[in-house]
Amino acid sequence: MVLSSWKRRGRRTLVAAALTTTVITGTAGWASAHEQRPLTGPPPGTESWRADHALHLTLPDPETARPAQVASFFRGLSTSEQHELTLRHPSVVGNLDGVPIPLRYEANARALRAEHTRALGVAEDASRTEQERSSARARAERCEELLAPERRILAFDPRGRGQVAEVYGDLGTARHVSVIVPGSDIDLDSFDRARDPYGTPAGMARAMYRATDARTAVVAWVGYTTPVGLGPDAATGRLAEAGAPRLARFVQGLTAVGAPRPAVFCHSYGSVVCGLAASRLPASDVVVFASPGMRADSVADLHTRARVWAARDDSDWIAKVPNVELFGLGHGADPTSSSFGARHVPAEKAEGHTGYFEPGTDSLRAFTDIALGGAS
């Protein structure tokens, strides 16, 4: 009888795993999903940084130095030494967690100008294919947009599909900070797209910043390789496992330079990243919404001191994805279930998979309270 019961449970699990695959891949079709190679390792330009002895100092290794060590190193430099490193190594300084915020802004502006020039050169190169020239023109336009004086770019990496982090508000003076972690189909080109704005980290960040009446700084973070489409990458934790250390290091870098512990808001597949990073995040709150799971069975399994919150509206298609994890497929328990133990975020007025930050929704009001240190 025990064996028979075990077999029945095993069959149910296998059926659920198969259904997970069907839902995740079938919603948009296999043709829309392409396996991604995650961007890992230190920032571009690391080798020249390691070889630089102009200051007669050993520079912190971008691959191994902790953000607190980086922050300590930069505090020990003079203003002229800091700016010399920024001039010589903008790609490293702009992406190295623990570097003072103003230096990162300056470094990324330089890196963006360099990428803009490179992209224009490709766009005007007659030996390139039309597709390459078109892609380069689009990249040059994107860089030009990000170079607008009012924009604060905290990270910029042009490799692959491109990664970026943008700040809304003043990280240097804000009493409260939030970080937005996106789900699938987000990269340098799409992180602030006009279509479906509240499904993008930039749109969510702007909505949060406005809803708090500018009483918080909000970071739209696209610092990991996201899945494309709803295929195998979205159904497994491979990209989340590569992204989790990057998220943890980024948040550690914020607190290392004096920012308060942030509330981290994790959308869809981004909640898988947050679940895997939770134990290393110096966060006040971890808020997941439209989540397929966090690769954990309960809040206790996250091993975090942060408050954990979960939201899902009734019209969100993510509810159709079975909450299982088997043979690497699926992302585990439903964070909105009572057994998981997360605090409830109301989302009755939100609509669909990307409507949680829509102005006027109860979910955005609740997110705002959490971001400002309230709610219970």
Can you offer a commentary on this structure?
This protein is α/β, with parallel strands linked by helices. It is 39% helix and 11% strand. The chain contains 12 helices and 8 strands. Helix 6 (101-123) runs antiparallel to helix 7. The termini are far apart.
User: Main β-sheet, in a few words?
Assistant: 8 strands, mixed
- Kindly provide the radius of gyration, computed on alpha-carbon positions and rounded to a whole number of angstroms: 21 Å
What general outline do the C-alpha atoms trace?
globular
Write down the secondary-structure element order.
HHHHHHHEEEHEHHEHEEEH
Low-confidence stretches: 1-32
What's the overall average pLDDT, rounded? Answer: 91
Strand order of the largest sheet: 1-2-4-3-5-6-7-8
Distance between the termini: 46 Å
- Give a count of the beta strands, DSSP E runs of length 2 or more: 8
Class inferred from helices and paired strands: alpha/beta
Beta-strand residue percentage: 5-15%
The level of helicity is: 25-40%
Count the DSSP helices.
Answer: 12
In brief, what are we looking at here?
The chain is about 40% helix and about 10% strand.
Provide the descriptors you would attach to this structure in a database record:
376 residues; alpha/beta; 12 helices; 39% helix
